[in-house]
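Let us work through a complete example step by step.
Step 1: write down the sequence.
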Amino acid sequence: NKMIRGSLANDGGNYFLTLEEKNELIKKEPKSLKWIRKAIGSEEFLKGKQRWCLWLNEISQDELREMPSVEKRVENVRNLRLSSKKEATRKLAETPQRFDEIKQPKNGNYIVVPRVTSERRRYIPLDFLSHEIICTDRNQMIPNGTMYEFGILNSIMHNEWMRLVTGRLESRYNYSGTIVYNTFPFPTVTDEQKKHIEHLAEEILLTREDFAGDTLAKLYDPDTMPESLKIAHQNLDDAVDKLYNPKGFADTASRLAHLLERYESLINTEKQQVIDKKAKKMKTKKE
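Step 2: predict the structure and record it as tokens.
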């Protein structure tokens, strides 16, 4: 499955609401409730903060007129976009009720990956969220991501690759779908192996449920990570390592050496396929 960045509002903050602002708006204009959705950036995701947004993609002018406070926010966004130096942004003023870039899946769940996360963490915290929760551009996401993908991305194998290739924001990890996810050499697996990884990935989610009151930031802080969660991750790490090498790996250096070798092999295979395709095309033309 493809990894994409979450939706970009380009709204000057007009469509985002704190819990208090949300409650105030609903009290003032009860019809606005239909158009309010929970929103999640990396801060909300990792630290459990609450944030909401107006998601007005399908709203009609008549419905908008019935909510003067919401209409005022839309007008603010229109004016903001019209005053932009960028032609593309000025064009967006024609549909001010919509986010600038809409990436939100229309059904199912998605895997959320925070774009910026502390370099102290051994694992980047990931989770499954409902399509009802709006994912902002502060996160990457995999719409309809599978439990198997979730397992591989949670593994130390993937996290070591991330540390090797990712960019940094100050010293923090700045996860990029293009640089990290798209280049990561996934293992070749049987159905049975896949099921085993899925089971171990589910164990991580179940273990987290025992600490439901804690934020992901706390659960994945090396100083406060619960022992049972460490063990669940270690079990998954061991299983994913063995997908690449039945004997596993002694350390980070041996994991990375294997991944780089596999990456090079996959790139060479891809290049050869392109060459073969071109040769076949030329042969067909001559004939």
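Step 3: interpret the result. The chain is about 50% helix and 15% strand.
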